[in-house]
Amino acid sequence: MNGNKTNCVLLTGFIILAVFCSSGYMLKCYNCPLTALPCKTNITCPSDTDSCLWIKSGDRTLSDCYKYSNCDMNGIKEKYKFDNFNFKCCQKDLCNRSQTTMISTAVFSVATVMTMIWILCF
C-alpha cells in the first residue's frame, strides 16, 4: 500500500509539471474582427506580440494579439482607427474574451488534473 501512495505522489507531480510547465510557451489569444457576436476563434500569437488585446467600441468588440509596450490609448487608436473605445491588454492565455463570457481556464485545468489524480490513484 505504501508503494502505491509513493507512485501516486510521483504521478501527481509529473502530471502537474507536464500540464503547467512548457519550455516553448507561446501566448494564445482570441482573434476576431470588430463584431457584435461573441468571439470564439483563438490563435497562437506571433513572436512579435506578447499580450492579448480586447477593444469595445459601442456594442461591438475586437479581439487580437498585440504588443504590450504599445498598449495605450494612442497606440491602439493609431493602429485600429477608433475614436471612442475601451480596451484591455492582458498576458495570459485567452484572457481577452468578451467580458460577458469570463469563465476561468484555470478552473478547467485544475478540475482536469484533479480528475486524473482521482482516476489514477483511487
Strand order of the largest sheet: 2-5-4-6
Low-confidence stretches: none
CATH architecture: Ribbon
Question: What portion of residues is helical?
Answer: 25-40%
User: What is the CATH T-level topology?
Assistant: CD59
The number of E-state strands comes to 6
In this structure, how is the largest beta sheet organized? 4 strands, antiparallel
The gyration radius over C-alpha positions equals 19 Å
- Overall shape: elongated
Query: With helices defined by DSSP (H or I, 4 residues minimum), what is the helix count?
Result: 3
How would you state the average pLDDT, rounded? 82
| The CATH superfamily title | CD59
What order do the helices and strands follow?
HEEEEEHEH
- CATH class call: Mainly Beta
Structural class: alpha+beta
Residues in β-strands, percent: 15-25%
Overall tally of structural domains: 1
Cα end-to-end separation: 12 Å
